[in-house]
Recover the amino acids of this structure.
């Protein structure tokens, strides 16, 4: 059995799917070399999920061991992702320790779990699940009150219905006045040019993004 499973207190370990080094594919630090720490497990089942392999398995690692592995890459940027990282309680403590060590830390989260109380040095990239994801009902709208300028809300848009839904949520919650808003075309489902035209027609105050890592490496795992 993995020693971290048996010898490390539950508050001091995380189940990790993978740790890898790549270019950030989206959000504010797109293009920067980044260490990704992918946590195992997610309570959602989005129809377009491209990390289903992270739902199960992985390896228990002590927080200190994960920090040591991150350090090997000698980069400023660390992204904690999943799965849904917040589904594992020690994730919050792990984020705090990363910040204490001077990294620029971002957290990718589904928007279905409470983000209150996350270390304010962490840049939160929170999804708002569209109807096309199949998980719209899981959105925890109370999270909007905990977002700040350093954070981002991301809509993955599958079709015109998703676009209009996202536009309505943007206005309803005045998201652009709180943080940066990302509109991203669902890879393989929506033509990015269509999304760009819709955003311009409606003069929306959002940033459109395409996923750089998909352009460079398609769906290769660990990139
Ligand atoms: S929240 Fe993310 S990891 Fe979870 S099912 Fe949806 S896309 Fe996949």
């Amino acid at each position: 059995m993995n020693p971290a499973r048996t010898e490390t207190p539950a508050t001091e370990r995380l189940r990790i799917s993978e740790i890898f080094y790549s270019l950030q594919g989206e959000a504010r630090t797109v293009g920067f070399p980044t260490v990704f720490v992918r946590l195992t497990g997610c309570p959602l089942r989005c129809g377009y999920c491209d990390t289903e392999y992270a739902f199960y398995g992985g390896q228990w690692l002590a927080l200190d061991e994960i920090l040591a592995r991150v350090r090997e890459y000698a980069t400023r940027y660390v992204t904690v992702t999943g799965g849904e990282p917040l589904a594992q309680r020690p994730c919050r403590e792990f984020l705090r320790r990363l910040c204490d060590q001077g990294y620029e830390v971002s957290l990718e989260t589904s928007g279905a779990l409470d983000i209150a109380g996350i270390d304010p040095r962490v840049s939160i990239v929170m999804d708002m699940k569209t109807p096309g994801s199949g998980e719209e009902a899981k959105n925890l709208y109370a999270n909007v009150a905990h977002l700040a300028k350093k954070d981002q809300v991301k809509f993955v848009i599958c079709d015109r219905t998703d676009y209009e839904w996202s536009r309505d949520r943007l206005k309803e919650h005045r998201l652009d006045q709180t943080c940066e808003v990302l509109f991203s075309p669902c890879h393989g489902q929506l033509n990015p040019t269509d999304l760009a035209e819709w955003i311009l027609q409606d003069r929306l105050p959002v940033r459109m993004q395409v996923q750089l890592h998909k352009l460079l490496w398609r769906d290769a795992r660990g990139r």
